[in-house]
Write a structure and sequence with these properties.
Helix content is 38%, strand content 16%. By secondary structure, the chain is an alpha+beta fold. GO terms for molecular function: aminoacylase activity.
């Protein structure tokens, strides 16, 4: 996950058009990739970028001498980070002189935790799912969690949210979790934690 700001000291209208055209073209490319491979890919398998904030100017009838645009970019770990940054450099270069960028937050960890039968942790976790006849779906989570620090330190990490039959409303104004769904999740964890804590491979 990265938060980036692009700063310009050129005419606002010219730079805004150039940068936003580049961003929108990239977004459309990623949207098509997801749409055309919907049977194999989830949102976490593509890179997203959203304009989240713009600063500049002193009043509505004066063209600002400079402005800053902030973008929230979620880079999938299967993309090459250096290639993505080179693309951003070219966006700024093509927009003209005085256009620069910087990262306010820059995650560089691309390590993926194994999710197949070769991994004892995955086997332990999914063994509980099988016993409970619990259907599940693997995907790369698009948000930032503390698991990235574990993976960055070389420690495998798997996120699990037992939110059955619940719409995805992360950080929304009406995010909620039904009480029964919450309690069922607690029950599942009472089976998962002992299973993970008592792996034969690590005794």
């Amino acid at each position: 996950m990265s938060t980036m700001c692009i700063e310009s000291r050129q005419k606002f209208s010219l730079v805004k058009t150039s940068i936003l055209q580049s961003v929108n073209a990239f977004r459309e490319q990623q949207r098509k990739k997801l749409e055309e491979n919907s049977d194999k890919l989830n949102l976490g398998d593509v890179t997203s970028i959203n304009l989240s904030k713009v600063e500049g100017g002193v009043q509505t009838n004066v063209i600002p001498s400079e402005f800053v645009a902030y973008f929230d970019m979620r880079i999938t770990p299967t993309d090459d980070f250096n290639t993505i940054e080179e693309m951003i450099k070219n966006w700024c270069k093509n927009a003209g002189k005085g256009v620069t960028y910087e990262f306010l937050q820059k995650g560089l960890c691309r390590k993926l935790t194994p999710t197949d039968t070769s991994d004892p942790w995955w086997n332990a976790l999914t063994s509980v799912f099988k016993e409970e006849n619990c259907k599940f779906q693997k995907e790369i989570f698009i948000g930032g969690t503390d698991a990235r620090y574990c993976r960055g330190a070389g420690i495998p990490a798997i996120g699990f949210s037992p939110m059955i039959n619940t719409p995805i409303l992360l950080h929304d104004h009406n995010e909620y979790l039904n009480e029964n769904v919450f309690l069922e999740g607690v029950r599942l964890y009472t089976k998962i934690i002992p299973r993970l804590a008592n792996l034969e491979e690590f005794k």
